[in-house]
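anyone seen this seq b4? input:
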Amino acid sequence: MTNIQCKGRKEIDLLAISPTSGKKYHVESSVWTSRGFYLKEKDLDYFKKERFDHPIITERIRESFGDSNYEKVLIVFNTKDNFRFLPELAEEKYGFHVWGIKSIVAYFMANRLTRGSRDDIIRTMELVSLVRQQEMVFLKKLGGIKNLRKKHRKTRT
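predicted toks r here
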C-alpha cells in the first residue's frame, strides 16, 4: 500500500509484505534530485520521531500489520558520508535501516526480476535495462569503451 493517509495530515509512504518471506516493511523515502542535498545525522532524529515512531503512524501500521514485527526502512539518494557511516548509526541508534535508491535501482535493473510489467516505473526500468545490455554488446563489438574513445579522439582532430 502506498501513500497511506493518516489522521493529523500524516502520511505513510509504503507498507509492504514480502510475498516470499512474509516479512513486513514500513518504508519512508527521502529522495531528492537537487544537487547538494544528502541525508545528515540530524535528519535521522526527525525520521524516527515524525515518520516512523509518531503515535498516529504506529496506530495506522497496527491497523494493517496487527501486533506483528516489521522492519523500518528509509530510502535515500545519498548520505553525507556516502553510505559509510550513517546506515549503521540509523540501525543501532534509531532502529531503522537506510538504503540507497541508486543501489536498489542498479540491483533491480541488473537482475530484471520481472518481465512485461504493467507498472510504469518497473516497465521503464526494464526498458532502460535492455538498452544498457544492448549498449554493452555494441561496445564489446567495438573493442570496449577505451577503443571507442580513441576512435572518437582521432575523428575530432
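The chain has one domain: 2-111. Residues 2-111 form a domain with the Trna Endonuclease; Chain: A, domain 1 fold (CATH 3.40.1350). kinda curious what u guys think
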